[in-house]
Amino acid sequence: MLWNKWIQFYFHLPIIVRLLLSVCLIMTSFGFIIHILEPIHFPTTFDGIWWAFVTGSTVGYGDYVPLSNIGKIIGIILILAGGGLVTFYMATLSAGTIKHEKSLTEGKISFKGSGHIILIGWNERTKQLIRMMKDKQMKTDIVLIDHSLNKLSYRNNMIHFIHGQPTSDEILSKANIEKAHYIVITADPSLSEDEADRQTILNIIAARGNNPSVHIISEILTEIQQKNALRAGTNAIIRSNDFMSSLIYQALFQKDIQVTDIIAKTLEEQQFCINPIDNNMINQSFYHCTRQFLEDGKSLIGIVREDEIILHPPFSFITDKADQFIFLKAIK
Questions:
Q1: Is 311 contained in some domain?
Q2: pTM given for the model
Q3: Whether 216 contacts 210, CB under 8 Å
Q4: pLDDT tier, 12 (very low <50, low <70, confident <90, very high otherwise)
Q5: Distance separating alpha carbons of residues 27 and 99, to the nearest angstrom
Q6: Which N-terminal residues, if any, form the signal peptide (predicted)?
Q7: String of DSSP letters for 94-142
Q8: Fewer CB atoms inside 10 A, N or C side of the chain?
Q9: Can you give the residue range of the structural domain that contains 222?
Q10: Looking at the domain assignment, is residue 181 inside a domain?
């Protein structure tokens, strides 16, 4: 009964592990046999095992050789049996490595890490985001989920690719969504704006259903769907159309200045932050708070009061204990 369980356990192991165990067992057996047959030339069992591995792998150092006829017959059997098994093991190992890398490139391998960022959708925005994270040498793992890509090289992009629909529980499970810290959902450029927003909302629902605590950032193109995205469970909304319209408006009246370059440079080098007001700044003027922030190397640009964003209020503006500060700080 116990023997049958061991056999079942053995055949449930991966083929690479089974082959390695078989090689070790055969080499150990031949090493023990040659030690018993020729104890003078093979003083210890380890010497016999060393000879078996060297002979079976066809290396043949010649430091240990059998001298008796029976010992030579054992050597012939080892070369025929063990040599073929070692070669088969190495070929299988190489084929398995190539197959794993191919499956990784095609997005078929599950991600096993935690604390990672999941990006949904492969487009220029996600490409730029990945480049920025690499430039800032962020150590966070990135997992990409996309159905339009057939393959994505891990070596060139250093991100884990999962091929499939982001609304599928199976695909989200492959991305290990339960242990993810952030999810970024971008609009599908192949769809119309209304269709892209509906797809984004479905992606939010699927992600929130699989991880109630993950922080979701989603791109919404139309104003009408922003409330629906919040209802679906997103934590933050990126309104890309509004942002681009503002850039175009600024460029209309600043012909000699590359507004987009200035904003891009600002966003690359500095980070927007929102923090609750410090106790020592309650009931103080905005001017006083601005000076305090400058001394800390930060730029205070506004206040959030009762969900209203107040940018650059008058210096005489008095803060309240329920306020939140909006400021810029350098990205390290």
A1: yes
A2: 0.62
A3: no
A4: low
A5: 28
A6: none
A7: HHHHHHHHHHHHTT-SPP--SS-EEEES-SHHHHHHHHHHHHTT----E
A8: N
A9: 117-243
A10: yes
